Amino acid sequence: MKKYIVKMVALCSTIFLSLASQTNNIWAGESYKINNTVAKNYEVKYENITKLDLKTEKQLSNNKIKDYLTEQVKTQNSEVAVEEDSTSKIYYGTMTGKLSKTNDYLMYPAKLSAGEYLQAKLTLPTDPQIDYDLLLFDSSLSLIKSSDYVTCTTSEMATLDESIGYIANKDETVYVCVYSVGGGSNTESYTLDYTITTNFSDSSEPNENAKEAIDLSMNEMGANVSAKLNSPLDNDWYRFIVKEGDSYDKVRLNISSSSTTNGCKIEIYKNLVSDYYAMLRVGYGTGGEVALDAGTYYIRVVSTNTVDDFNAGDIPTYKLSVSQTTKVDKITITDYSAYHGTENVDYPEGKFYRVDQSLTNVVTVKGRAYYTDENGRSQPIANATIIGEVKDQQWEKLNRPDMSTVTSTAVTDSNGYYEMTFYLKTAVGGLSHFVTVSTHHYDLMDVTIKASSNDKATAKSKFYYLKYCD
Q1: Does pTM surpass 0.70?
Q2: Same domain, 255 and 310
Q3: Per-residue pLDDT tens over the stretch 73-97
Q4: Domain boundary at 302, 326, 350, which?
Q5: Tens digit of each residue's pLDDT (9 = 90 or more) over 343-372
Q6: Distance separating alpha carbons of residues 129 and 316, to the nearest angstrom
Q7: Per the structure, how many domains does the chain have?
Q8: Coil, helix or strand for 394?
Q9: What is the bridge-based pairing of β-strands 143-147 and 2-6?
């Protein structure tokens, strides 16, 4: 256990907080380095506090995109003048500091009113030998919260930021502490960002670090979460388990934001130790599929905005989905559907379904996906990604790929069925056949449906696309 003995002495100056589609993914594979530090126990002693007098503050209002209050002075005995209303407001600020050696620390007292939410994020120096933790103490210096990741770095990734969140249930003073449990630097500074949100209400908070991760209960269709990023520093952590099995293929993750100005993204982590948290980032982005080994993984949802460009008037509600996909061994095409479409039209090329361009350019292809179990039997697959292509033979002969090909995707339901909609382009009418009293001019369309994870699991079919009759 890491040991913290906190004494307020001259070395430890204290400062009052001044308030103021798929994407690229990086997956595990490069070497990493863990800075193994001593075990953690918290033993706190209160001796002396030195407070600095003045700090400025700014305020973001939820009612406007960027509505800063006039900068005002805040001392330990005065509060910023804020209108008494129920509007939630975000105060924010940034501090920097240096710790020269192991067991050095800096303390930052912050006055909170009941219902206010304090969030703090500590960015460590780049030296991989340094391990700082972020702690929160109450007014009697009893530990409330801790963020104490083991330093873990790669050639492309600094160690994970330390983050804590705390909702005050009364008017109180709390102490944010940056503590060195390993190493220090007289030249490299840490950065402490923080926000305080007034009139806060979100039952899912705080879940600011991996220790507070919410478990995702995944059924055959996965898990879905809807929550908010309440500030530019907000971290929402979730934990999920990848189950081993013959049918397992990949994990599909997606996230979207309701905000037009505040974005969000997913970061995926693997804990490399069993007794604490040495978090290695193994992926990031806004969505996609990735092959992960069986085991426990963590998701961190963070804002893509900085403190400066975060729009507090447009707090984002995000939707996160996580699901485990299954290997696809077989795909079938069972049906076509279009407005007034015709079954089994008998033209010289064979009997196929026909879509009439004069009525619609939309056709839906239906089918089912399967995997082969350990007994060699085909079983329907839920939650499999299916890719489809419709190619117009007549446009192909004219060397017009821009007109010949349309694509679509679908995900199978709990029983393995899929429905895939295609929006067809204008037909050429390059084929013709006389039927009873008129000549039909049409194109022959090739349909290819396959699994995103297995090109060998493919189904092919055809249909007619009627242009006109004369």
Answers
A1: no
A2: yes
A3: 222 222 333 333 456 678 888 888 8
A4: 326
A5: 999 999 999 999 999 999 999 999 999 988
A6: 37
A7: 3
A8: helix
A9: unpaired
